[in-house]
Amino acid sequence: MPLQRALRFGTIALAIITVASLAIWGGVRGLPGIWGVVVGAAIGGGFVLITAALVLVTSKSSPSTTMAVVLGGWLLKVVLLIIVLMIIKDMEFYDTMAMFITIVLAMITVLGTEVWGIITSRVTYIS
């Protein structure tokens, strides 16, 4: 199924980006860099992967149910993101640049690999 393939590709891409970012930012900024990468990967990769997982879970339901669940999940993720960012904004345990770059890279890479997983999957068409 294309959605499962997309989710698998996205998860693998997130793991690769996370490990590479941990190596780079851990070497450059130490422990704050590592924490920035962990938070950034959770936010950036989690945001995209949860949406794909919600679509996969509701794929057997009606389109309106799928859209309601995806929209509700998106709104919940935005609220949680705002809360998390408000809580950690004045904390100094993480490097903000490491977090920002990891969020951007994770979102772009995970979304790109999910799209690649869907468009390159072989699906039987019956007309």
Automatic annotation (TrEMBL):
Keywords: Membrane, Transmembrane, Transmembrane helix. The chain crosses the membrane at residues 7-28, 34-57, 69-88, 100-119. The keyword Membrane applies. This is ATP synthase protein I.
